Amino acid sequence: MKIAQVAPLYEAVPPKLYGGTERVVAHLTDALVDLGHDVTLFSSADAETRARLIPVRDQAIRLDPAPLKSDLAAHLTMLHEVLVRADEFDIIHFHTDMVHFPVFGRMADRTITTLHGRLDLKDLAGVYERWPEFGLVSISDDQRRPLPFASWKATVHHGMPGELYRFSPESQGYLAFLGRISPEKRPDRAIQIATALNKPLKMAAKVDAADKIYWETVIKPMIDANPLVEFIGEIADHQKSEFLGGAEALLFPIDWPEPFGLVMIEAMACGTPVVAFRCGSTTEVIDDGHTGYLVDTIEQAVAAAGRAHLLDRAAIRARFDLRYSATAMARRYLDVYGDLLARRPFAEEALPDVVTRLRPSEDRSFAAIA
Hints:
Elements: E1 2-6, H1 21-34, E2 38-43, E3 52-55, H2 71-84, E4 91-94, E5 111-114, H3 124-130, E6 135-138, E7 152-155, E8 174-180, H4 187-197, E9 201-206, H5 212-224, E10 229-231, H6 237-245, E11 247-252, H7 262-269, E12 274-277, H8 282-285, E13 292-295, H9 298-307, H10 313-323, H11 326-342, H12 347-350, H13 352-358, H14 366-369
Parallel strand pairs: 1-2, 1-4, 2-3, 4-5, 5-6, 6-7, 8-9, 8-11, 9-10, 11-12, 12-13
């Protein structure tokens, strides 16, 4: 099957440091190649991929040192490159929100769009009402709630290559926070939980420009005043196994409708349980009492983090392998692609081999994976 993957240009594929969407695109692309498909990735030139790469910018936007940049111009250039090659592909898989809708209307029936962000923004409903012809994939069922009328075709949870993460059968006794320093991620809660337990807390997180005031006025003073807390800053993929694997538990104390939360499955890949607030996707990702705990209050989080060491770390890793590997994610997307092609006019006559090979089968079905 000939598949185009169209990535955002904000981070490299995969990201050099923090970044979620581009990381998922990288793992999906490589997994599809490993499953025998002909995949082309549209991304910045610093991408690392087993697919054919069409570079549309010299490097990803966030780490580009140029002082003046236009993310809109960069993405329009990429859409042009996809458009002129569109007839080469059976499926064009967009990860760029809705920016391609006005351009690809005539071929919407062979595109799929995964939405990676929150969907409770004021202006989004009008867009998805105007362009219902574009099939959408959510990354959790909870993500759909603000737009129940949209053209949803499937929910596909994220996956990661298991070999990227080293299983740690024992922890080193500290708690971990990994992500962004921002009000919705609630790093202040992580500090409160660790302090209540008198346990060390290691925080590996980036500080965006938009969150600099929050960092300077709220979180940094809490860290400076607390000898239990160690702030590490951003870390890359190769550092995550040691950081997450050494933790007794990952604290995921969010206060927003998290669409997925990659760090939860990254921790699970290391065998580390997750203590997550019941918000957004967490009820879909965490098996309460098995791969971690779901909580509603600080008091519940303190109690859960205090008993997280009792959970079976090998069973947590096994659950990751079953549900959240990159191969499992790719096979679920292949089912989505197959359904999309089968619904096209004269699909069986025009693309008999592709459709036949992508029909759900026992070895590619969700049931076989889960």
